[in-house]
Sequence to fold (484 residues):
Amino acid sequence: MKKTGNRSNILGTCLNPLWTCHFAPELELLEKHIKKGDHVSVIECNADLPFCDANPNHELKKCIECNYLQNRGFSLLSTKPKIIRQQNKNANFESKKYKALNQLKKIMFGNLDLGQAAFSSLTDVSISSKPCIQTYEKIINKILASCLLTYKFAKKTLKKSRFHKVYIFNGRFAGARAWVRACESTKTEFITHERMLNANSINLTTNDLPHNPENYKSKIEKFIKSNKKMLKLKKAKEYLINRSRGIDKAWPSWVKDQKKNNLPENIKKAQKYYLFFSTTERENDAAEPFAKRPLFKSQIETVNFLARECKKLNILLVIRIHPASKKEDFKWWRELSVRPQSITVIEPESTVSSYELLYKADKVIVASSTMGVEATFWGKPSIATDIIYYKNLDIVYEPKTKKELVVLLKKNLKPKTKKNALLYIAYELFGGQKTDLCTPVTNFKTLFKNSKWESSNLLFKMTLKIRTILNYYFNKIFIFSKTK
Fold:
């Protein structure tokens, strides 16, 4: 499709308005196109899908809030966008029983990796990397149905309007993945956006998901080569120091409630110990479609291997489980095959300071955690065993085989240079696109144009509420009830 003069046809998918920290930046992206004179359209969902990631149980209260937020957001744009209503026609979906997660992951519909997309959303709903497929049978089918509906609707919409650019949040979740694959199928340019370490900066990725390590690497390299890199190192250093103190303006701090000088006695008495920082398996699952895990299939396998090797070296292995893992129902660290005497596990709920552990460790090993970068900054030899976004940037040691890992465990290693660690953090803070119209209020709430999300217009609020309630029950009775 040719542009009308210099005007482009832009679409904002505006997924999950309940997450204003991601919704507001997309509104800003659309606002910039409006200022350029481009035609802007947005997708509106009014309780039209049986599942969405922000409201997985399809609660009426959340549907009302979501519909209000999206319409309030659209009203804050300087020119009213064209609203395209999410359709749920042909919602008949034959539910199936799946025996295993691998069976679910393999489901394809055209170029849509339907099963993998559903699994990605399921891991967040269940807060587990290995959810019981029988327990979540109903919601799995709702995710599959919603993803397929969105994919068909997206393809139809893209073919009809021929947009020049489509904005999509993240791309990992089921609804977002449907839009990504629809864009690929129709050869429509799309841009995924994701918030970075800086609450006022977003990572924009053209025709790809932000989880692709190779894509990430090229962006970082480009940033490092820029002339402005030296101006950001001081701020990167300040950020890492504040982070160790539990101060993080963009994301929740996992260490603010941890206590100093609270190390277990066996760690205090240990002459030497290696420290392994885990990550949530869900993070690894997001990157797995783009890159194979280099050494181990899981963190259980990783830790079992490390424990055996450390025992041979007569070195204590301390395992710091990520605090976010406390909500996961699959406690993988409790299924290790090694004897308890060989390791010390710091549970996710523990108030033992992660940084105190780091400062006193002889070596730090990570799966894919950014603690690998931080360890280098704090002068510790750091080894990464899994998929990392700072790959091949000479920030950590990156063994390509298990034999290389054993050598690194035995060898006296020098820490990598701090500068590379600071450059990576500087990119995460300042390498994305700055958002000028967004004001972070909390870690997950962001204002757009500094306007409150609550409107004083009672008629506006009541009209939206009534419309959502009517549509919610209409869909529930006449549309979703047909799903077998």
